[in-house]
Every structure is written in C-alpha cells, then in structure tokens.
C-alpha cells in the first residue's frame, strides 16, 4: 500500500484549525444513517470510503450486513450521484473516483468536484455527504471542502438550517470496524475528536445533527475495535480532568 503523504501531514493542520477533524455525524456504520432524511434536507449526493466502511479492508465486495442500507442509499440519491473514493472497486454498483492523489489531498478534492459538476444536474459541495471510517483522511477531506455558499432567494431553504452556510459537505464518521486495522491510530483519532469537541463546545451540535440524520437500528454487529487495557486507562484518566 503506497504511503499516504497528505494523510500523514493532515494532523499538523490541527495547530491552527483543530475543528478540521470534527465530523458532523458519528455512527457505527451506515445502517444508522437516515438517507431519506438527508435527501429531504437537501443533500443530493454522497462520497463513500470503501475499506472498513463498506467492505472488509482490501476486498471488493460489500459487507453482507449492509446490503439493505447500501441499496437504500443508491435508490435515494441515484447511483450516478454516489461515488466511491477509491482507485479500484468493481462490485459496488456505483461510479468509482480514479484519482492520482490519496485523500485528503486537494487534488483528490478537485477530482470529486469535477465529477459532480459534470453530472447533468450538477451537485455542489454543500449538497454532498462524505462518509468514511478515518478522521485524517475522510473527515479532514470533507472539512477541507468548506467554502462560502451564495444563496439566491428560495435556495437557502435547500441547505440544512442547522449548519453554517460556510460549511461544505456533511462529514459522517463511521467509527466501527469490520476487520481490525490500524487500531492504535484509530484510538488516537477517537481521542482527538473527543478532546477537540469538548474544547470547542461542539458536542451539542454533534448530538443535534445525529438526532436529525440517524435512525434507530438493530444492535450493530460491526466491531467497535477493542482498545488495549492501557489505552482504556489513559482514556478514563483524561475524562476525569
């Protein structure tokens, strides 16, 4: 697997913009997403990560438990409006983004924008949902797509009122894993999200958005990824502060 330089450099952006790592919605997996609610609120397209979000890492077949939710997503948005942000995928029934730079590189963002602007009914950044299991690639990429949205009369109602007009896509973090991978880094990401959310008073916003865009679902079978005992102890100590 090639080294993801943009992903390795992303944490340095925390120094001047800590909110770059904050997702808007946190779910265990896509079964908890209410795609109809997203569409009714004005979201018209979606960008998905593949590994450990839709498939087992480095495999190209959908996790069986996600069949119904994936079908619902494609039906609600339309298959051409759902994009897989991976270089290779042949069995997920939606377009695949062939990009020369890995997420969250700005060249990858440009490729995503080029695809959605080329559609018969172009989709703008603020009409997208970006779904992935990694903070420093998927969530950072979504937040890097923020830019001022100029609304004409009548168009403002199409943009979710809960969110700032400067924000781009809705960043959805799936924090469950179908197969253990990079668990230490995942723990660090989870810890950083919690710290930044508390220090920027963003927990209320996360709760409000989750209430709007998620639905009750059966107890997810996806693994949360057990944190080693020493990490759990560190987590507990940090929360006592």
From TrEMBL:
InterPro entries: PGP_Pase (IPR027706). It holds the Pfam family PGP_phosphatase. GO terms for molecular function: phosphatidylglycerophosphatase activity. This is Phosphatidylglycerophosphatase GEP4, mitochondrial.
């Amino acid at each position: 697997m090639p080294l993801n330089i943009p992903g390795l450099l992303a944490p340095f952006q925390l120094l001047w913009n800590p909110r770059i790592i904050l997702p808007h919605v946190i779910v265990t997996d896509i079964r908890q997403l209410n795609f109809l609610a997203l569409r009714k609120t004005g979201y018209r397209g979606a960008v998905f990560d593949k590994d450990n979000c839709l498939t087992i890492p480095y495999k190209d077949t959908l996790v069986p438990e996600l069949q119904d939710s994936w079908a619902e997503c494609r039906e609600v948005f339309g298959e051409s409006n759902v994009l897989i942000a991976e270089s290779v995928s042949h069995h997920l029934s939606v377009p695949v983004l062939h990009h020369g730079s890995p997420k969250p590189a700005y060249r990858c963002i440009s490729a995503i924008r080029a695809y959605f602007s080329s559609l018969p009914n172009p989709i703008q950044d603020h009409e997208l949902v970006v779904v992935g299991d990694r903070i420093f690639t998927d969530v950072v990429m979504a937040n890097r797509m923020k830019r001022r949205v100029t609304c004409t009369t009548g168009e403002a109602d199409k943009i979710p009122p809960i969110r700032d007009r400067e924000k781009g896509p809705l960043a959805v973090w799936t924090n469950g894993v179908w197969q253990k991978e990079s668990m230490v880094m995942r723990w660090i990401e989870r810890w950083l999200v919690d710290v930044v959310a508390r220090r920027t008073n963003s927990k209320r916003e996360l709760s409000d958005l989750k209430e709007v865009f998620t639905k009750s679902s059966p107890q997810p079978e996806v693994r949360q990824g057990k944190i080693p005992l020493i990490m759990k102890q560190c987590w507990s100590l940090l929360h006592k502060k």
